[in-house]
Amino acid sequence: IAQLTITGDSSLQRIDLSSAPDWRVYSSVSISNNQSLRNIKFAKNTATTLYIQSNSLLDSISGMKQIISTSNSTDFIFGDIVIGGSRQLKHVDLFNFPYSCKGGRTNEIAIYGCGILNLDFLNKFTYFGRVTIEANGFLNNCCGIYNLIKDRPFSDSIGIYANPFACRNVGDILTSCGDTSNLTYNLIHGRIY
Fold this sequence. Notes:
The protein is mainly beta. Helices cover 10% and strands 32% of the residues.
C-alpha cells in the first residue's frame, strides 16, 4: 500500500481514479493546491486516509463506496478525513456503501472552509478521535455527524465553529437533528458549552 500525492498542478482539472482495480488501495491520498481542479472521482476503495485541501475551484468529490478495512463483519475503520480550503466545494458523495454497516471508526474528521451544504457523507461513522467542522459558509445540515456527537456532545475533541445556523455548535445539531435529551439535561444543569 503506497501513498498518492497530487499537489501544485495548475493545469489539472479532473482526477478520475474510478477505473482503478479493486486491489489498488492507498494508505493515504493527499490532493492539495491544484488551482484548476474541479472534480475528484475515487474508485470504490481508493484509500484509508484522505487529505483534500486548498483546491480553490474544486466543486465535487465522489466515490469510496466499498469498505476497505474492517474490525469485524459490520464495522469499518478509516484513518483521517480532512477536506478544507475549497470554497467552491458543494457536492460530496463519499462512503455510500451499498449495504448496511453498524458503524465506522475514524481518527480525525476535519471539514473547514468549504462551500459544502451538508455532511450526509459522514453518516456511517459512529466513532472518532477528533471532529472539527469550521467556517463552512453554506453548511445548513449537519445531521450527517449526529451519530458521531450524540453520545458525547460535550467532549473536548469536538470543535464546531463559524458555520451557519443549524451547524453553529453541538446544541444546534442535536436540536435540528431530533435529539434534545442531552441539550435539555444540560440546560437544566446550566452546562451549555
